[in-house]
Amino acid sequence: MPEPRYDDDGAIASTGAGGAMDLATSEGETLERTPGGPLGTGPEGKPRSLWSDAWRDLRRNPVFIISGLIIVFLVIISIWPSLIASGNPLQCDLAKAQQGSQPGAPFGYNGQGCDVYTRVVYGARTSVTVGVCATLGVALLGSVLGGLAGFFGDGWDSILSRLTDIFFGIPVILGGLVLLSVVSSTTVWPVVGFMVLLGWPQISRIARGSVITAKQNDYVQAARALGASNSRLLLRHIAPNAVAPVIVVATIALGTFISLEATLSYLGAGLKPPTVSWGIDISSASPYIRNAPHMLLWPAGALAITVLAFIMLGDAVRDALDPKLR
Amino acid sequence: MRGATHARWAVCAVAVALTATACGGGGDSGGGGASGIVSASWGDPQNPLEPANTNEVQGGKVLDMLFRGLKRYDPKTGEAQDMLAEKIDTTDSTNFTITVKDGWTFSNGEAVTAKSFVDAWNYGADLRNNQRNAYFFGYIEGYDKIHPDSGEPTTKTLSGLKVTGERTFTVKLSQKFSTWPETLGYSAFAPLPQAFFSDHDSWLAKPVGNGPYAVDSYSRGSQMSLRKWDDYPGSDKAQNGGVDLKVYTDNNTAYTDLTAGNLDLVDDVPASQLKNVKADLGDRYINTPAGIIQTLAFPFYDDAWNGPNGEKLRTGLSRAINRQQITDTIFQKTRTPAKDWTSPVLGEDGGFSDTLCGDACDYNPTEAKKLVAEGGGIPGGSMRVSYNADTGSHKDWVDAVCNSINNALGNDRACVGNPIGTFADFRNQITQSKMPGPFRAGWQMDYPLIQNFLQPLYYTNASSNDGKWTNDEFDKLVDQANAESDTAKAVETFKQAEEVVRDQMAAIPLWYQNGSAGYSTRISNVKLNPFSVPVYDEIKVN
Amino acid sequence: MGRYVIRRLLQMIPVFFGATLLIFLMVNVMGDPIAGLCGQRQCDPATAAQLRKEFGLDKPVWQQYLTYMGHVFTGDFGTAFNGQPVTELMASAFPVTIRLTIVAICFEIIIGITLGVLTGLRRGRPIDTTILLLTLVVISVPTFVTGLLLQLLLGVEWGIIKPAVSPEAPFNELLIPGLVLASVSLAYVTRLTRTSIAENARSDYVRTAKAKGLPRRRVITRHLLRNSLIPVVTFIGTDIGALMGGAIVTERIFNIHGVGYQLYQGIVRQNTQTVVGFVTVLVLVFLLANLIVDLLYAVLDPRIRYA
């Protein structure tokens, strides 16, 4: 019998479809087709990089434009929510509890008599912060660990791969419930920290796979033969060519992190007041879904649109970075 | 083709798994229960179902159906009446002679004797048996030997308990306690059959008691079927064929199941559904006062909350809470704004007073602002009201209380809710004196006496004095009241003590909680007792 | 093959111990569970100490872990706070969750693959775009919102299903909860199948099959589908473990007394033994599912051989 065609680990399938967790993204799709070569040749015969090719594609992709616009809008209102909401999200009058849409309060009032519109606008900041920070943390930790495992191979790889498996084995929501139920901080950092802690294996596996692929390229072998140091090899030659799949998965993961925050809040272990968050609002509105669905539907809608925007962006980026699909 | 063979194998394996689990499923899952049987909502009891080990409502429900003690609290008035007790005599409020009625047996046929009680109480008090309610036996002489604060117990019996005949035994207390017999209706004092001691595991799997129902089957964590015990000797025989208690993951789902016709009785209608109750159930909804009061306690171990003018600050906060609006809006009138620190179920004679708190419980934003300022303002300018977020709808009312305070003080960050993930963590922070500010405190009475609303909560170092409040005058008055043999005088003295609580605002009384329940058209004559537990034995199936 | 399986099994050992240790430490971070057992009162110190001793909580964490693992290998998963052996809880919870998972997987296979094939063969057409967008929407809406809405509409307003699942949890009551549980994965399966089909549709062997005049149906079922489903099968395989552990939300909404419910209860009551026990089994399921998927991979794709 011939040896397996893949690396010594043999975990072909689980590497490919590791996104089975709740953070699942379509990295299963991505990994099957890790972009190999760094160079493409444009119609004019002038060598163009994968990146400029991708950018050219993206600019013409309506999905990218729409999701990009939504995200830019979200970022702006996260920074200056008062631009479009003049009220105070913490100002509530119980006398108005559960009232529906009316002049001055287009989305109506919630169970505490707070203005739903103002809270939806102010909630964007929390969700975007959680999503962006968790994604950055996961991408950084995951690609460093995964990259090291892929580059050095052997002992390093075995240890890091097992570590990845260990963290992968813990159901994410469960881990969140356990770790966050005793946290007393009112900031978003414990939630972000937990997501990084349990989310990195996903990126790590991808980074490892693409570093292994990149490592085998001729130009890397050539650079090594010329006596390039390990750090130079990694940073100058391998990383730029291995980063594409990581970016794709990270963008999609951003959406799932935002969704995960809401789920944890629903289970009572997410963020705490006075932080204004869609998750908290959806959670406290959910028992009232029969009588006052507006209290739930507006923040849930905002959440869904935000998640959708990031997933669509990730989708568009993947299509652009994947030469095989052109 | 090798692949195809393997694929076929996989299909077969899946098919086998499917049928296997399908068979495992089995059982009838139909409608609202078999004929004559009431199906009712239930929560998974936290502790093993032993009488002296059950300290929460869900386990209490079952014990109430399975056991009858020496006394029973009248389901209507809450008054302690003789049940198995023929007589309880005392001359000095310390030595009691108890005679058990003749003719009572457990549902396995064993007679209920004086020994059934004494053995059960010794078991409950013994440290080695880990009974959560052991402290109920703390008034009996010899408790410190069988349940020492540290080290191993040196005896297996309470020296204050003596069996003097087939149906008589004597009890010696370690101090005077004139109303002690009134506490005997609590489930911890129930008698136990010999099977409990000889084959404990199978007793736990299928408890045997002397009440109007017997356990038919019990699958822990999901359902308990209780059936009417036909030979029950008491006068309160079950009016229905039995009760199926079904565990629900949350009370919203239970209510939904009731409206869908899959359940007969929900004894805890969630606040979020109260608006629908009229439309869904019409008059098949009951809302009756129960011996439960909700308060906000303060961390008196924290100097910031125990300053020289602290009582003004606390009274100011009390006056900043619009109780009427919150009970009307959040609780849809299933709670009543509190006027004192006890409960209306005690009645005027029992010590309840709707004027005792007076102005201090009246909503008045102007006065509130002034008092808080005189009291030195909220420590640090902002306070966090802690509550456990795992059960109940505490979040709704804590947020409403905070909004009310914020609006009254004109500062939207003066007060904010602080959810704590688990009840255990909440209790840990309390017992370790780590509460960052005021916190939720609720009290469900063990027995309907004013003493039970004051002493455990405000007496120096009492077991539920979570804020560690201490006041010499209060302690002195409580001691006086306990020694008083005349009930009316004792109640008056307790009320004087309660006035000290008011003047110092030891805890902010919020509201009295009602018991609420909804039921299906299949059943009638549904009532809740003063402990907010349905009176199952009186329910009739139409 | 045999050597490969043995190597994989050996690799599982450190992962198994690591994951159980991790969850053990996490649950311990939650603090002392005893205070929650005495209701609104302070546990009297003697009883609290006695309880701590009984549950082994008075020992250092590493010692607790070793004792626990020692017991696990004799089949003793400890006792829950209500006095019930954890194995008994497992015996009642796992069959329910396995049924729920089976329903979810069936939905993934039937709906997910059908839609995936449909869209993959009609890339770029309106139906493709519509379904693709729909899958995105399904992924974007959190499961608990989907679940609550379906429960309200189908269960309460229209009365089509029972809003709550009975303790026996037969298959027919688990249809909607299973759909909710599967929804996100279902969307992924659709997308995965679509890309895979689209990619393979342009491959040489399909072109050859068409060129030699095979009927379209035969080309799709015998040639295209078989090869395109390989990544889908691996995804579904690894999803089994995730579905079982991720059912906390679904089980809570629909009152299902399965693994998710027991875990939630265990966490809220800080019951170390229950949580660690259930997670240990879930980790095992996860690891075994991964192994089986890898082996299945070799079965489906004759190009892959393990040594």
TrEMBL record, chain A:
Sequence segments annotated as region (Disordered): 1-20, 26-48
Membrane topology, from the record: Multi-pass membrane protein
Keyword Transferase among UniProt keywords: no
Listed Gene3D superfamilies: MetI-like (1.10.3720.10)
Subcellular location: Cell membrane
Main location: membrane
Domain ABC transmembrane type-1: 124-314
Keywords, comma-separated and alphabetical: Cell membrane, Membrane, Transmembrane, Transmembrane helix, Transport
InterPro entries associated with the record: BP-dependent_transpt_permease, MetI-like, MetI-like_sf, OppC_N
Record-annotated membrane-spanning stretches: 63-84, 128-152, 172-198, 242-267, 296-317
Recorded superkingdom: Bacteria
Listed SUPFAM superfamilies: MetI-like
Family: Belongs to the binding-protein-dependent transport system permease family.
Protein name: ABC transporter permease
Organism listed in the record: Streptomyces albipurpureus
UniProtKB/TrEMBL annotation, chain B:
Residue ranges occupied by any Solute-binding protein family domain in the UniProt entry: 83-464
Record-linked SUPFAM superfamilies: Periplasmic binding protein-like II (SSF53850)
UniProt entry tagged with the keyword Signal: yes
Coiled coil segments of this chain: none
PROSITE patterns named among the record's database cross-references: PROKAR_LIPOPROTEIN
Signal peptide: 1-22
Name recorded for this polypeptide: ABC transporter substrate-binding protein
TrEMBL record, chain C:
Subcellular location: Cell membrane
Pfam families, A to Z: BPD_transp_1 (PF00528), BPD_transp_1_N (PF19300)
Name of the molecule in the record: ABC transporter permease
Keywords carried by this UniProt record: Cell membrane, Membrane, Transmembrane, Transmembrane helix, Transport
Family: Belongs to the binding-protein-dependent transport system permease family.
Major place of residence: membrane
Cited InterPro entries: BPD_transp_1_N, MetI-like, MetI-like_sf
Matches recorded under PROSITE patterns: ABC_TM1
Source organism: Streptomyces albipurpureus
Bilayer topology: Multi-pass membrane protein
Domain annotation ABC transmembrane type-1: ranges: 94-297
Residue spans crossing the bilayer: 12-31, 98-119, 131-154, 174-193, 224-249, 275-300
